[in-house]
Design brief:
Layout (H helix, E strand, L loop, with lengths): L2 H8 L1 H12 L4 H14 L3 E2 L13 E6 L3 E7 L10 E7 L4 E11 L5 E8 L12 E11 L2 E8 L33 E3 L7 H10 L6 E10 L4 E3 L5 E4 L2 H16 L6 E7 L16 H12 L4 H9 L2 E5 L2 E2 L21 E4 L10 H14 L3 E4 L12 H4 L6 E6 L1 E3 L6 E4 L1 H15 L3 E3 L3 E3 L1
Parallel strand pairs: 1-2, 4-13, 4-14, 14-18, 15-19, 16-17
Antiparallel strand pairs: 2-3, 3-13, 5-6, 6-9, 7-8, 7-10, 11-12, 12-20, 16-18, 19-20, 21-22
Helix pairs in contact: 2-5, 2-10, 5-10
This protein binds cobalt (II) ion (CO).
Length: 448
């Protein structure tokens, strides 16, 4: 095969695009900033929630809440306000990590300076030991008579969480349960730096005085760089593949798609890893408020809005578990996705995934028509499985919905692995969804 054809077939360019996107997104605030940059380049206009909105057929706009959640929409040029619907994708901007406490430093023992952090979400603790770490997030800076938010990444290695040597813990290979209060304190100095170290670093980075720093939402970042690897470039490994792989794929699909008769929507929610119940999470009013305002700005009535919702569909995007090479028995034998096998449709009888027969049929038929591959996932019947944002969003914006994701290994490790070809395949699938003008008639029928 020609090298050019081969690269096209495997979607190397989009895998590299994901590497760049993850590099720009060390925190949920940065994820939203990276998405905004790409939307602005594609001609999307920022409409702040605190301003009046002008929206009309052909409009491309986005809004943000808390600078950590984002909703973008494109109104098709042929949209009729009295007879339209939404086609939405949603993914999450946050990933499990450790958050710095308000008083961030621990002095001692023996002259050391460490950081005081607590868990954000359900990470695998052992994957945070013995690797270069930094801090990223936002800092609130005193600004005249108020405070202003500043995005910050310390682009250098500032901390390591050191293991205890095996000679001092001979049983470690028989099982290790780190204590989050004592074992997981990142080390930042042997004694040359003292209390105030964090604000001094931040002040230097932001060009302000340390005393101007009032508060911080700062998270630990694994500094091991994202990379595409394997003899044939089959793998991608990076921090935050859950769920930046889906954020990137959905955003790319949204930006590339064309559908003049629907309102296409891309949503990226913060707070999924801590239950979504924040002012900007999937449990908030953010998506519903945004869609209702778009409806109103189009000159549509409240009744039009409810009619639109009844004919709308959401694809909730959050990564899925691939068959593990060392533990295939952990997957359901019949419903187990593989790396590089395409987008995964996830279903659970307990409806922690919002997929049902109707929504699965619609998406599968759309993907079949577009000749895009897909796979199916279900948990082993004796395993609880995870949850995601689709069923939570659906309690506020109730639409037919299907849960999907990209297959990956080591979910919630500080460094995760997925299939490099799956980036392009996920974009192809989500683009097929956006491109199809899917009109839903209750749960009786859908056509496109
Ligand atoms: Co996730």
């Amino acid at each position: 095969m020609h090298e050019e054809q081969s690269e096209q077939a495997t979607g190397r360019a989009e895998a590299e695009g994901l590497v760049s996107f993850i590099g720009e997104s060390p925190s949920m605030f940065h994820t939203v900033a990276a998405a905004r940059t790409r939307l602005e380049q594609a001609g999307y206009t920022y409409l702040p929630e605190g301003m009046p909105w002008q929206v009309e057929p052909g409009s491309r706009c986005y809004t943000v809440r808390n600078n950590s959640s984002l909703v973008a929409w494109r109104v098709g040029s042929e949209v009729d306000p009295a007879a339209y619907h939404f086609q939405l994708t949603a993914a999450h901007s946050d990933s499990p990590t450790f958050k710095l406490k308000a008083q961030p430093e621990i002095e001692g023992p023996d002259g050391y300076l460490r950081l005081d952090v607590e868990a954000y979400g359900g990470m695998m603790d052992y994957t945070w030991f013995d690797r270069p770490l930094s801090l990223a997030g936002r800092v609130m800076v005193r600004d005249g008579s108020g405070v202003a938010s500043r995005l910050v990444t310390l682009d250098r290695d500032v901390a390591v969480i050191p293991s205890v040597a095996i000679h001092m813990n001979r049983e470690v290979n028989k099982g290790f349960a780190p204590n989050r209060s004592t074992d997981l304190c990142p080390l930042v100095s042997t004694g040359e730096c003292t209390r105030g170290f964090v604000d001094a670093l931040l002040a230097e980075e932001l060009g302000v005085e340390p005393a101007q720093i009032v508060a911080r939402d700062l998270y630990l970042v694994n500094r091991v760089a994202p990379r595409i690897w394997g003899a044939n470039g089959e793998f991608i490994s990076a921090p935050h593949l859950d769920d930046l792989m889906c954020v990137y794929a959905a955003l790319r699909a949204f930006a590339q798609s064309a559908n003049e008769r629907t309102v296409s929507v891309f949503a990226c929610f913060d707070s999924e890893e801590v239950g979504s119940a924040t002012m900007q999470g999937a449990e908030s009013t953010f998506l519903r408020d945004t869609l209702a305002r778009v409806n109103g700005a189009l000159g549509a009535t409240e009744d039009d809005f409810y009619r639109a919702l009844s004919s709308s569909m959401l694809v909730s995007c959050d990564n899925a578990h691939a068959v593990h090479p060392n533990h295939p028995e952990l997957s359901d034998a019949q419903n187990a996705p593989h790396l590089n096998g395409g987008l995964v449709i996830k279903e659970a009888a307990n409806q922690h995934y919002c997929t049902d027969g109707f929504s699965r049929a619609v998406l599968q038929a759309v993907l079949d028509d577009a000749e895009v591959p897909y796979q199916l996932f279900a948990n082993r019947s004796d395993m609880a499985g995870g949850s995601t944002l689709g069923n939570i969003s659906n309690t506020h914006v109730s639409v037919h919905a299907v849960d999907v994701g990209c297959a990956q290994l080591a979910m919630h490790a500080s460094y995760e692995t997925a299939g490099a070809h799956d980036v392009q395949l996920a974009i192809d699938a989500l683009r097929a969804f956006y491109d199809a003008d899917i009109v839903i008639d209750g749960a009786d029928a859908a056509r496109w």
